[in-house]
Amino acid sequence: MFTRTFTALLEVILLETDSSKPFLTDNQTQTWIDWTLKYLQVETDWRGYVPVKGWAHGIAHGSNLLAAAAAHPKITTAQLQQALDVVANVLAQQKKPFLDDEEERLAMIVLRVSQNPNHATGSISRFFNETNIIRWNDYAEHTHNNEAYYRVSSWKRLMMTLYFMAPSMQPTLLPLVTKYFQKMGYLD
């Protein structure tokens, strides 16, 4: 586990270096990007810090890797959409609360997709609106299920992270975050 997640960080360096000083062939680049799109979908160890052993951080390091891929100039529009789908899928699979800033790492994927000129117009707004509906439907269907609460809470934290990191997203995010606080009884 620890070797796998820290290897992902080495792969971040590889992709970031290739982004600025290309050395991979197009085929190699696509292979790496395809692999990064699968990493978070198959990661089963969601622990952050493990006492005595140290950082496992599979979701965080996998997010760093996918964010690096999303920033790569050779990633395709379809792959950028897949990256957003991976973020939504991680939230859909969550069973316990994140404890070690995993939401912030997931938010970096969305940020990098939004900054890549290859992303489809409207894909970020669509991602926010569709994921918001899915998270709230899940919560409404499972109101006495802590897992559904963890998912909607992580979704709120991801949006709040982007609200502060990407001011251009604020008009889209403010109503969604406000809705969270209203539904949870913090606002009228």
Structure commentary:
The longest helix is centred in the last third of the chain and has 20 residues, at 146-165. This protein has helices at 2-20, 26-42, 58-71, 77-93, 102-115, 123-141, 146-165, 170-183; strands at 49-50, 54-55. α1 packs parallel to α3, α2 (26-42) packs antiparallel against α3 and α6 packs antiparallel against α7 (146-165). The protein is built from eight helices and two strands. The relative contact order is 0.11. A hairpin with a 3-residue loop joins β1 and β2 (54-55). By secondary structure, the protein is mainly α. A two-stranded antiparallel sheet has the order 1-2. Helices cover 71% and strands 2% of the residues. The chain has one domain. It comes from Lacticaseibacillus paracasei subsp. paracasei. This is DUF2785 domain-containing protein.
What labels describe this entry?
188 residues, mainly alpha, 8 helices, globular
The chain-level structural class is mainly alpha
- Roughly what fraction of the amino acids lie in strands? under 5%
Tally of separate domains: 1
Major beta sheet summary? 2 strands, antiparallel
The total strand number stands at 2
Helix content: over 70%
Radius of gyration from the alpha-carbon trace, in angstroms: 17 Å
Number of helices: 8
Strand order in the largest sheet: 1-2
Uncertain segments: none
Average predicted confidence as pLDDT: 93
Q: Could you state the order of secondary-structure elements as H and E?
A: HHEEHHHHHH
Would you kindly provide a brief summary of this structure?
By secondary structure, the protein is an all-alpha fold.
